[in-house]
Amino acid sequence: YLETGGSVLALLDTELVNPQTLNSKPVETGLDSWLLDYGIVVDKRIIFDNNCITVQAGVHQVKTSEGDRLIPIEAPYGFGVITEGEGLNIDHPITSALGSVVMFWAHPLEINQVHSSLDYEDLIMSSKQSWLLPSDSNLSMKPENIRELQLSAYGSANPTSYPLAVAVSGAFGESNPGRLVVVGDSDLFHNVTLRGGGDTNKEFASNLVDWLANDIELISLRSRGQRLRPLLDYAN
Predict the structure, then answer these.
(1) Which candidate, 108, 125, 94, places its Cα nearest to that of 201?
(2) Which of 76, 118, 166, 236 is the most exposed place for a label (fewest CB within 10 A)?
(3) CA angle 154, 156, 159 (to 5 degrees)
(4) 37 — phi, psi (to 5°)?
């Protein structure tokens, strides 16, 4: 399809996660060899990022003069990656006006063979405080498990930033130029996780569709009202 000038969006996970129970099971997409033809590899490991969402990891019972009260225990959940700032490509129309994107149980991408006829651009990167954990890691949000995940991540390697979404454009074949976006996560557009990601995830989805359809003007119109417009003081 790409070879004839088409566009493809690939949202890839190596496991299916039930967002309510957090149980996961391995899945084979069958796309690994196809993506490898274009030099793209999806790592089976999961990103654990210090720049992440905060979840209610439990409750703590406290005695007060009015009786016992349950106080929520909040903890940073490194598998709920918040990408913002330097993590978003400000030069690409898909991400230039986004404030943030939230990704869940995401996988890093690697470009291991660059094709001269194609242009590769990182759209989304994890923060510089990121690690890789095995895909069969316990995904529980209980405080003790979150602490175990943190210790495993900190002891695994030095932290670094990883690509999480890549845009590829150019001549995939001998016909019209095509477009391909690969995202190492399929959960960021799940009905449950969209509520956690807020409007920015929805805007990211819309921008992806518009760019793949070569409708850059619509992206500009959508993001026009979201840019910062500081008032400049010309009095001096």
Answers:
(1) 94
(2) 236
(3) 60
(4) -60, -25
Task: From residue 226, give the alpha-carbon distance in Å to each of 202, 218, 230.
Answer: 14, 14, 12
Which residues, including other chains, have CB under 8 Å from residue 202's CB and lie 6 or more apart?
A: 194
Find residue 16's DSSP bridge partners: 25
Q: Would you give the distance in Å from CA 76 to the centre of its chain?
A: 17
Q: pLDDT tens-digit profile of 21-76? A: 999 999 988 999 999 999 999 999 999 999 999 998 777 777 777 777 777 788 99
- Rounded to two decimals, the pTM is 0.85
Question: For the range 196-201, what are the long-range contacts, defined as Cβ-Cβ under 8 Å and sequence gap of 24 or more?
Answer: 196/53, 196/80, 196/102, 196/104, 197/101, 197/102, 198/102, 200/98, 200/99, 200/100, 200/101, 200/102, 201/101, 201/102
Q: What are phi and psi of 7, to 5 degrees?
A: -130, 145
Q: Give the type of residue at 149.
A: L
Calpha distance 120→168 (Å, rounded): 5
Nearest to 47 by CA among 188, 170, 178, 175: 188
Q: At what angle do helices 216-224 and 199-212 cross, to 10 degrees?
A: 160
Task: Give the CA angle between residues 135, 40, 51 to the nearest 5°.
Answer: 50
